[in-house]
Amino acid sequence: MNTILDPFEKYKNEYMKADKFRKGEILDTVVDLTKMHKKSIIRKFRSLQLKSEVDKQVRLIKPGRPCIYDRETTFALKKLWILSKKLCGELLHPMISEYIDQYKKFGNWEYSSKVDNKLCIMSVSTIKRKTNTFFKDDKDSFRKGVSTTKSSAIKTIIPIRDTSWFEAKIGEGQLDTVVHCGNVLSGDMAYTLNFTDYQTYWIGLRAQMNKGQKATQESLFYLKDYLPFKMISIHPDTGSEFINYHLKTSCDNIGVEMSRSRPNHKNDNMCVEERNGHVVRKYIGYIRIDCQEAVDALNEYYDALCLFSNHFIAIRRTKEKERVGARYKRKFEKARTPYQRVVESSEISNKKNQN
Length: 355
Description:
The chain contains 14 helices and seven strands. It is of the alpha/beta class. The mean pLDDT is 84.
């Protein structure tokens, strides 16, 4: 079969460019070599010509699916990703339209409406894939710090929580402190008091100098007035700044219940521990803060950071968790901001929502 095709491959290009007289000579030559009918040879040359033209057009077309999200769309997505303080794709997806509206409101959005539409229709999986590349190119890295939580001898004054957190109401939150000591725990240094509401993930942050009982009480009362809802109960770990008569008596006087975590069960305070890493360590890091001026500046920063986190950073919870072999299969709820959770809650009246 290859010997029959060789004359066609040999004379194909010349035949396509030749005049009528030369084509006749080529046909006579191929007839002598292949013993085929002249009409069959003409049809064969014609089919080779059409195939060559089709192959040329195919080579000009890029293989694979067409590119929908161009470089400009990717740059716009990265700008929103940076604004969200580098959220994952699942949490960034429901906030894209909100971020674009905020950028346009202040005149800082230089992309066209075509890019806006592409960003709004972009799927979660596509955003995850693109943000993963952003993470790989990111030069920032986080390291582990040291902990100051120690067991206290006065644990009997505050009961261990014996009810499920799934039954918690808005206003029942978890409490913890984050130390800003750098690499050394000696000396006087700043701490951040973190209150995280379990139902809404509303976060309140307050910096203080040392973790004394009085400083912790003042920070807690400040956060109590800051919350958009009533503080019903607090659930700290077994740190000495919380497990003391001073704070317990003060909470009893203002009608705030106290419970504590079980010893050696850090995950009893899962929500606030998560926010310690996702908010405090992410934005402040592990630098040492050991002067009152820096604490005052940090509190001003926290006022803006809490507004940003509560209104523009979406959070999602696990609805179901099923073990399949050696792995867990999880189903998540729709990501929402703490503000959206408060507004949608039936526990908060419409009058308070409008305020």
